[in-house]
């Protein structure tokens, strides 16, 4: 019987040990899951900011600095003695790790203060020319900081951070909570990347990119056939006007319905053309029966035209009741042969750029309710190799939740002859005539302004390209704007112009000042406020002091005007 008892005891011992282990584990597990919540309020220039402030959680020796719903989350991992950033999106989960020893090292100071009944030490960090002041304690039994990179010690709780003396985050409470669990910490699920790679991933995760053209040729092909097969399709690239115009209908992202900002980003390089050429990125509205897109398909003859005092016809330059000109979103100029001629003109200490790069905000020119847009690029050239371009539209969300602005966009004129290779005339009528356009302003529009882009051309010594000329704009006979459009900074862009001619004076052709443009740059519009313009019918006139012809050479002006406003 004694043996039975012993045997039964031997059998029960593992069970008792398991129960005892479980009982011991319960308090330990509860202790591990305990969460401490540190709340900080923001103070800017001495005033407490409205809003929820910043909340940091501490549990299991890890500080959680970000909301669990964020794409990008920051952690201070005191178990591993490193800060951790994890980014999770549709492409996967990635992390970058920074050991504490690689962080900016604080320098102890003499200041002291009491925050939430803790006697706090003081230290200073310098980061990117910013002075970061830290007040912290090592006596709280909690370790955290509201900023990832500023840790005065491995056991410190930072209770106040002041940046440049005027922006402060200060703790208002440190509370342990039994009801709240720590968020997930997906350390093992993330792929490690370098800090530089993480910065790239961060930036790309914050906005939406819509590619339009990629390595797209824009050249001159006299025998290029027009597209056939009926209706043009969304997402397909179409080439018109002997290859000098490319078009594509793109879908707008859902994020644009919430508003924000849009930038057009263009890269352009030579595939054989050595010269600086006029370029234009534009949108073709589909609100009228006759559009520039239909002219690209059927011929310049269907465009409305006007005849100047010398009998010259100009097609598609001005809005009519049946026609709306393109909305120009970027005026740019190709460089003298970037990339293609880099190796053909090697000069010591001249490190030629591989391409010309342009990035331009176009937010006021894009309707908030647009679901699709016809986007085009024109480069006026007569070279078979021509140029190549990359174009994308970048959509950045609003800084804060706010009602999106309902833009009103009304293109009035566009004398960039984007159908030049199909017979559209140059804008050379300003010598003897005036550009006149009638328009109406609805009574539901506020903040009215005119986007006016102008560049002068005529590439010989006394041509308008190299001679300052006055531009004037009149509305209903009253002058509202005048300017002499001129650029004196062209020499800044010498290294994007390898094929530019060099003169005996030491100057290069690309260095010369010009009528509001430089080879390899974009030309931003002038913003002309028209807030006092009453609703109703009006007439705009553009008057330019265009120079006289010289032999077979003539001057001409590329101008575009777009009325914009906000729908009430």
Describe it for me?
By secondary structure, this protein is mostly beta strands. The chain contains 3 helices and 34 strands. The strands form 6 sheets. Strands 1, 2, 3, 4, 5, 6, 7, 8, 9, 10, 11, 12, 13 and 14 form a 14-stranded mixed beta sheet that branches. Strand 9 and strand 10 form a beta hairpin. The longest helix is centred in the first third of the chain and has 32 residues. It is elongated, with a radius of gyration of 33 Å. The N terminus is likely disordered.
How do the helices and strands line up, and which of them pair or pack?
Blueprint lengths: L1 H32 L1 E10 L2 E2 L5 E6 L2 E3 L7 E6 L4 E8 L2 E8 L7 E2 L4 E3 L2 E10 L2 E8 L19 E7 L3 E11 L13 E2 L2 H11 L2 E11 L18 E4 L4 E7 L9 E10 L7 E6 L8 H7 L6 E3 L5 E3 L11 E7 L22 E6 L10 E8 L7 E10 L10 E8 L20 E7 L3 E13 L13 E5 L2 E6 L38 E2 L2 E4 L6 E9 L11 E12 L1
Parallel strand pairs: 7-14
Antiparallel strand pairs: 1-2, 1-3, 1-13, 3-4, 4-5, 5-6, 6-7, 8-10, 9-10, 10-11, 11-12, 12-13, 15-25, 16-17, 17-24, 18-23, 18-25, 19-22, 19-24, 20-21, 22-31, 26-34, 27-33, 28-32, 28-34, 29-30, 29-33
Quaternary structure of the protein: single chain
Low-confidence residue ranges: 1-31
Helix content: under 10%
From the alpha-carbon coordinates, what is the Rg to the nearest angstrom? 33 Å
Largest sheet: 14 strands, mixed
Strand content: 35-45%
Instruction: Classify the secondary structure makeup into a structural class.
Output: mainly beta
Instruction: Tell me the distance between the termini.
Output: 97 Å
Average pLDDT reading: 92
**Overall form:** elongated
Question: What is the number of helical segments per DSSP (H or I, 4+ residues)?
Answer: 3
The beta-strand count equals 34
């Amino acid at each position: 019987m004694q043996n039975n008892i012993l045997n039964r005891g031997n059998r029960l011992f593992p069970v008792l040990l398991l129960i005892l282990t479980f009982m011991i584990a319960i308090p330990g597990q509860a202790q591990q899951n305990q969460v401490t919540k540190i709340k900080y309020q923001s103070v800017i220039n001495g005033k407490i900011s409205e809003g929820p402030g910043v909340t940091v959680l501490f549990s299991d020796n890890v500080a959680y600095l970000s909301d669990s719903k964020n794409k990008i989350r920051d952690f201070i991992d005191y178990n591993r003695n490193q800060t951790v950033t994890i980014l999770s999106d549709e492409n996967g989960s990635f992390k970058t790790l920074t050991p504490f020893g690689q962080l900016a090292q604080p320098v102890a100071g003499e200041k002291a203060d009491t925050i939430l009944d803790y006697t706090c030490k003081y230290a200073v960090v310098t980061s990117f020319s910013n002075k970061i002041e830290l007040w912290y304690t090592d006596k709280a039994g909690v370790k955290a900081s509201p900023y990832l990179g500023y840790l005065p010690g491995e056991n410190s709780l930072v209770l106040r951070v002041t940046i440049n003396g005027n922006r402060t985050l200060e703790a208002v409470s440190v509370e342990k909570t039994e009801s709240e669990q720590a968020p997930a910490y997906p350390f093992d699920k993330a792929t490690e990347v370098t800090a530089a790679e993480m910065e790239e991933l961060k930036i790309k995760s914050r906005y939406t990119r819509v590619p339009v053209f990629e390595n797209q040729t824009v050249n001159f092909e006299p025998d290029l056939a027009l597209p056939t097969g009926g209706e043009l399709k969304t997402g397909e690239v179409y080439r018109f006007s002997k290859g000098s115009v490319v078009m594509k209908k793109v879908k707008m992202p859902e994020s644009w319905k919430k508003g924000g900002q849009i930038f057009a980003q263009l890269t352009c390089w030579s595939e054989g053309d050595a010269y600086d050429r006029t370029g234009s990125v534009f949108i073709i509205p589909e609100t009228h029966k006759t559009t520039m897109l239909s002219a690209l398909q059927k011929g310049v003859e269907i465009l409305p035209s006007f005849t100047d005092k010398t009998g010259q016809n100009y097609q598609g330059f001005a809005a009519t009741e049946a026609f709306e000109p393109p909305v120009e979103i970027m005026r740019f100029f190709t460089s003298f042969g970037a990339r293609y001629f880099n190796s053909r003109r090697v000069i010591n200490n001249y490190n030629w750029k591989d391409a010309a790069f342009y990035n331009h905000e176009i937010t006021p020119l894009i309707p908030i309710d647009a679901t699709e847009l016809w986007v085009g690029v024109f480069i006026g050239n007569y070279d078979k190799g021509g140029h190549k371009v990359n174009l994308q539209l970048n959509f950045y969300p609003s800084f804060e939740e706010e009602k999106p602005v309902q833009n009103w966009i009304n293109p009035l004129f566009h004398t960039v002859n984007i159908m030049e290779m199909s017979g559209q005339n140059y804008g050379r009528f300003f010598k003897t005539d005036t550009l006149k356009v009638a328009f109406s302003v609805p009574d539901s529009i506020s903040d009215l302004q005119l986007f006016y882009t102008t560049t002068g051309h005529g590439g010989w010594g006394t041509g308008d390209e190299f001679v300052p000329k006055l531009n004037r704009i009149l509305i209903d006979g009253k002058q509202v704007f005048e300017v002499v459009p001129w650029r004196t900074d062209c020499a800044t862009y010498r290294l994007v112009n390898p094929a530019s001619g060099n003169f005996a004076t030491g100057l290069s052709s690309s260095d010369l000042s010009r009528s509001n443009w430089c080879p390899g740059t974009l030309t931003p519009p002038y913003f002309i406020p028209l807030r006092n313009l009453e609703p109703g019918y009006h007439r705009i006139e553009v008057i330019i002091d265009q120079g006289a012809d010289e032999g077979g050479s003539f001057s001409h002006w590329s101008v575009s005007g777009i009325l914009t406003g906000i729908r009430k």
